[in-house]
Structures are given as structure tokens and as C-alpha cells.
């Protein structure tokens, strides 16, 4: 299979899930479609796809990146216990960019906002202890 087809397959895998997968997750899915694909190939293509703006990459705990096939600006919530990352349906606050730009003289293009806490599953299971990054 051609290199570009593998890249398209990887892009479709990330776009086809809401789970903001890690490279390892993408690799296990990709292997179902492309037997023999290597983890290195998956990493390389994820990097190229995020550099070209077709995916977004978010740095997470321990340097593990999570990938997002939805590249329109949106907010995230990340669970402090299990690390799950979900989209938050909340309008992006353009006013914040404007206020910061006005006060600091910096040119703000956009901002990244991530809420932290416990997901519904973790609230219902186990203790209240959380990890801090
Ligand atoms: Zn959780
Ligand atoms: Zn997202």
C-alpha cells in the first residue's frame, strides 16, 4: 500500500473517534486495517498530519500526546484520574483573546483551554484521590 494511503487511513481513524486517542491506540486500530504497519510509521504519520494542520496534537501526562481529528477550535476536559479527554460544548471566548491582547500588547491568535477534574465514570468509581501533572 502506498505511503499516502496509509496516512489517509490513519487520519480517518483519528477523525472517526471522539476519544482523542494516543498513538498506541491509533496503532492498534491501524493494525486491523493495515496488517504489518509499524508503530514508527504511525508515529511519523501522526506527526506529519499534525504539522500540516489536519490533526491537532495535545501534550499530556508523561509526554504522551493525544490526537484530535476535530481541528476547529474547541475546549477540552481532562480527567485527573483516568486521563480521558473529552470535548466541552462551550462557545470559544473571543473576548478573552481581545482582553489579553489589549492588556499585554501581545498578538493573540487563539487560546487553548482545558478543564480538569473527574469524569462521570471516575466520580462513580473509587476514591477522590487525583493525580496532578
Ligand atoms: Zn476519569
Ligand atoms: Zn477535541
Short structural summary:
The protein is an alpha+beta fold and 133 residues long. Helix content is 40%, strand content 16%.
The domain count comes to 2
Instruction: Enumerate how many helices there are, as a single number.
Output: 5
How is the biggest beta sheet arranged?
Answer: 3 strands, mixed
Shape-level CATH architecture of the largest domain: Orthogonal Bundle
Quote the average pLDDT: 90
Tally of DSSP β-strands: 5
Shape: globular
Strand order, largest beta sheet: 4-3-5
**Kindly, what is the distance between the CA atoms of the first and last residues, rounded to a whole number of angstroms?**
40 Å
User: Roughly how many Å is the radius of gyration?
Assistant: 17 Å
Bound molecules: zinc ion
Q: Which sequence of SSEs, written as H and E, runs from N to C? A: HHHEEEEHEH
pLDDT < 50 runs, ≥5 residues? none
Per CATH, the superfamily of the largest domain is Winged helix-like DNA-binding domain superfamily/Winged helix DNA-binding domain
CATH class label of the largest domain:
Mainly Alpha
Strand content: 15-25%
Structural class: alpha+beta
Percent of residues in helices: 25-40%
CATH topology of the largest domain: Arc Repressor Mutant, subunit A
Give a description of the structure.
The longest helix is centred in the first third of the chain and has 13 residues. A three-stranded mixed sheet has the order 4-3-5, with no helix packed on it. Strands 1-2 form a two-stranded antiparallel sheet. It folds into two domains: 69 residues, Winged helix-like DNA-binding domain superfamily/Winged helix DNA-binding domain (Arc Repressor Mutant, subunit A, Orthogonal Bundle); 62 residues, 2-Layer Sandwich (Dna Ligase, domain 1). The protein contains five helices and five strands. Strand 1 and strand 2 form a beta hairpin. With 133 residues, the chain is α+β, with helices and mostly antiparallel strands. One zinc ion binds next to loops.
